[in-house]
Design goal:
Aspartate Aminotransferase, domain 1; four-stranded antiparallel β-sheet; alpha/beta; about 35% helix; single chain; binds pyridoxal-5'-phosphate; Aspartate Aminotransferase, domain 2; seven-stranded mixed β-sheet
Length: about 450
Amino acid sequence: MTLFDKDRAYLWHPYTQMQDYAERDPLLVDRAQGLLLYDSQGKTYFDTISSWWCILHGHNHPTIKARIHAQLDRLEQVLLAGLTHEPAILLAEQLIALTPAKLKKVFYSDNGSTACEVAVKMSLQYWRHRGRPERSGLVAVERGYHGDTIGTMSLGGVPEFHQAFASLLFKSHRIPSPYCYRCPMLREPQSCELACLAPLRVLLEHEGERIAAVIIEPLIQAAGGMIVYPTAYLQKVSELTRQFGVHLILDEVATGFGRTGRMFALEHAGIEPDFLCLSKGLTAGFLPMAATLASEEIYLAFYADYRQNRTFYHGHTFTGNPLAAAAGLGSLQVFAEEQTLGRLPATVAYLHERMARFLDLPWVGDLRQLGLISALELVRDRPTKAPFGFVERVGWRIYLAGLEKGLILRPLGNIVYLWLPLSVTIAEIDEITERMWLVLSDPKNIYGH
Ligand SMILES: Cc1ncc(COP(=O)(O)O)c(C=O)c1O
C-alpha cells in the first residue's frame, strides 16, 4: 500500500469532501522551509495561507526550533492545575506586557475555539459572582466565526458551516455584518454613518441588562469571507459595550501577532477589551496553544475563599503545554531579534500595491486588504455583484490551478485570498502575486471552459 492508499484507507480530513480525493491524491507534504512546502518529489509550493493562518516567521525557523528542543530535554508536559513551570509563566508575563494595560491575567487552552469558549464561560460566571445571573445573553456578528465547538458554533454567523448542527446550538443575539461590499443595510460606505450598528444600540438599550458580552473578530471577519471592515465600527462597538456595561470579547485568534500590520488588530482602534482570545500565531504555528487574557476586574470576581465556590472550573489536559509555551517564547524572541514589526509597513504597502491590478479582471468584484491579508471576492457579474453559485465550485478550480503553479490557494467559496507569513520578502510577494495572476486571469480557471 502506498501512503496515498493508506491515507484513503484510514484518514478523514477536516473541511474536506473526501470523494474529491477518490482518484486525485492530496498533496503529500514532506518538509517545509520558510514560505515553501516541499512534496515528496521535491516540487515546491508557496504556503500563501500560512498553513491555516498560523505560521508567522516561516516554517522551520531555527530560533523557535531551538527553544522547543531545549524545552524537550527538560519537561515535555505537565498539568497546570496546582503546578506551574517556567515557559508558561514567562510567556504569560510577555503576553501581558504586549497587550493593553487592562488585561492582567492569562488563561491557557489549546485551540482558538477553546480560547473563545473560555472567555464566554468566564463572562457568564463573572456575572453570577457579581449577583447578576440574568446577564447571560451573548451578542455575536453575522458572518463571524469563532470555532467549531458547539459553544463557538452557537456564536457563529456562517450558516454554510454550521447549519447541519442548528438543533444543538444555544440561542444568542446577532447583529448585522459590517460587510461593506454587500451592505446588509443597503447603504454606501461613504455615507452610511455605520447604520449597521444601529441594531446593536437598540438591542443594548432594550436588553442590555440581560447581556453578558459581545464577541467580535477585530477588523476582519476572516472565515466568514475575509470581510475587512472600518476601524470606526470596532471603536463604536467598544464604546457601546462600555456604555452599557457589557463585556467586550475580542477574538484575535486569526488577527493576533502581526498579521494586520500591528502586533494586535485592536491597536489600530486603540481599544481595550475585557477579554482577548489568542491562538494560531501564538506559537508561530509550531504547536497548538491558545490563551484567553482577562482583566483584573474579571479575575477578582473569581478570587475568593474556596468555600464560596468561585473557582473557574475549566481546563484542558494540555493547558499551558511547556513545549508550546517554549515555541511562543521563541516566536516573541524572533519578533525582537528580527525587528519583525518594523519591517512590516514596507512589505504590507508593497503587497497592497501588487494586488491592485487584480481589480482589472472582470470577475473580481472586490479587493479587501488588511496587513498581510489580501482577499478578492469573485463575482459572476460585476455590476450586479451576482455571486458564483455553490455548485459552480470556482474555488476548487482555483485551488487546483494554484497547485499546478506551485501555490497553496484555498479559497473560501468565492473568496480567493493571501494570508502571508510575516517573514515574506518583496521577491516572494512578486513571485506569489505573479503566479496568482496566471491562475486568476485565465477564464478557464474561473468558468471551467
Ligand atoms: C477568528 C477565529 N476564531 C476562532 C477560530 C477557531 O480556532 P481553532 O480552529 O484553532 O479552533 C478561528 C479559526 O480559524 C478563527 O479564525
